[in-house]
Backbone:
């Protein structure tokens, strides 16, 4: 009940709805940072994952990147980049991208590699060029898994961008970090609610994308 | 203080190795608790097939909630304590374990189960002596993911009143302008994670002596965790 009370008073305070520290501004910042980080990470992870998955080479390197990516402490990396590079967007973007590349790369690699080889062979037998095999046969079949990798990365970015408020980034994490310093629990809980909702919206967004982009045949044949 | 490598500011009221201990405690207790809770839930999902999709949905949603948001909402109930850090980590571990165990137990071939029954094993002994050992690689794969991400996430506990083990060094590194402390935190946490991961690989080799070792590990074991869980709801 207590927490609900805090949430209610946070959202009904009209001063939270406009200005530099208003919810629309902070939300826009958060979404903007997350999209930039996800775009950069996808630009790195997708092509490399598709290529390694298609050729089947570099599996050990990909597995190593997966383990290393998981072992890196996200929060520590944020603070490290901040103390080394100083204020600004770049020191925050580096850890966000570094953390988002492994899930995208590894899932894409696994997805393409685990495509049933018989349709792939059939496509080759029909005389398809390697690029057509990749984009017209392997990619559509691997798409659900690839999207789930992008989704994990996006959720991790939204989550880590929240913590990044501690090292001066804007976004919804500001409410939590500032609220903790100001002992303003209403603000803390309001911020936490917004962040959780944004994460769930991200989840739902990827569900919708999967619904519209995954071929019905692929969806039906899945177990 | 004469500037030893592992000397840390006195306001943390701890030694470096004390922080390592706190870090491991906050990271590992939730993983064990998550595993203990996940086993019966997973068994229930194996028995009642209709239960698995909704359980998977709930776990996917719980897993999406950012750690910091989870921590701060709990402050109202459990205060700025280690418990507040451990509860979300336990939930995240649970979320990793349930699909790992369900997939592992389901992968046991029907003939194997029939053979066990024919040998006179009751449901309980069959579960502990046949199903769990065969599911062990999948469970340990989940254990690796849960342990490593738990070790990484404990640091965030610093933000809720210095409850973050090695993460507590990050704040001191910033306020005292001591980059050494930040390095100590980042490298220390990464080393803990890698050691724990390596230890679990050794455990898997020990508990599954029948598996082929070295050359090529069986695929499902090394699949990153989100894949198995995410695949199922992505195609639903």
Residues:
């Amino acid at each position: 009940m207590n927490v609900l009370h805090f949430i209610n008073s946070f959202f009904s305070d009209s001063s939270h709805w406009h200005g530099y520290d208003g919810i629309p501004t902070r939300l826009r910042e958060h979404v903007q940072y997350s999209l930039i980080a996800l775009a950069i990470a996808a630009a790195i992870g997708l092509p490399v994952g598709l290529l390694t998955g298609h050729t089947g080479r570099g599996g050990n390197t990909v597995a190593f990147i997966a383990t290393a990516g998981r072992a890196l402490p996200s929060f520590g990396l944020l603070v490290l980049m901040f103390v080394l590079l100083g204020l600004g967007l770049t020191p925050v973007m580096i850890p966000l991208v570094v953390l988002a590349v492994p899930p995208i790369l590894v899932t894409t690699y696994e997805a393409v590699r685990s495509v049933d080889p018989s349709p792939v062979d059939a496509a080759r037998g029909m005389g398809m060029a390697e690029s057509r095999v990749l984009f017209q046969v392997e990619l559509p079949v691997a798409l659900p898994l690839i999207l789930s990798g992008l989704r994990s990365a996006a959720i991790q970015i939204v989550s880590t961008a929240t913590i990044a408020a501690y090292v001066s980034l804007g976004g919804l994490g500001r409410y939590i970090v500032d609220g903790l310093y100001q002992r303003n629990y209403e603000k803390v809980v309001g911020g936490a609610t917004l962040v959780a909702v944004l994460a769930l919206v991200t989840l739902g967004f990827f569900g919708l994308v999967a619904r519209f982009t995954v071929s019905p045949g692929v969806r039906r044949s899945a177990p | 203080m004469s500037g030893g490598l592992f000397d840390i500011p006195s306001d943390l009221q701890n030694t470096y190795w004390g922080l390592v201990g706190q870090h491991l405690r906050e990271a590992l207790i939730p993983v064990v608790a998550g595993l203990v809770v996940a086993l019966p839930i997973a068994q229930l999902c194996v028995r009642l097939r209709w239960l698995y999709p909704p359980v998977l949905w709930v776990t996917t949603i719980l897993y999406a909630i950012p750690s910091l948001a989870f921590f701060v909402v709990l402050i109202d109930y459990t205060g700025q304590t280690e418990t507040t850090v451990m509860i979300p980590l336990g939930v995240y571990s649970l979320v990793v374990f349930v699909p790992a165990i369900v997939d592992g137990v389901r992968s046991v071939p029907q003939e194997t189960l029939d053979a066990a029954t024919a040998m006179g094993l009751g449901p309980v002994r069959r579960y502990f002596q046949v199903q769990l050992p065969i599911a062990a690689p999948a469970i340990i794969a989940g254990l690796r993911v849960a342990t490593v991400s738990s070790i990484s996430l404990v640091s965030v506990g610093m933000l809720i009143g210095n409850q973050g083990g090695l993460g507590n060094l990050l704040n001191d590194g910033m306020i005292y302008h001591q980059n050494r402390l930040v390095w100590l935190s980042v490298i220390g946490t990464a080393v803990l994670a890698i050691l724990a991961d390596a230890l679990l690989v050794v455990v898997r080799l020990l508990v599954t002596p029948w598996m082929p070792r070295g050359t090529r590990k069986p695929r499902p074991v090394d699949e990153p965790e989100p894949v198995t869980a995410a695949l199922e709801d992505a195609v639903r």
The mean pLDDT of chain A is 87.
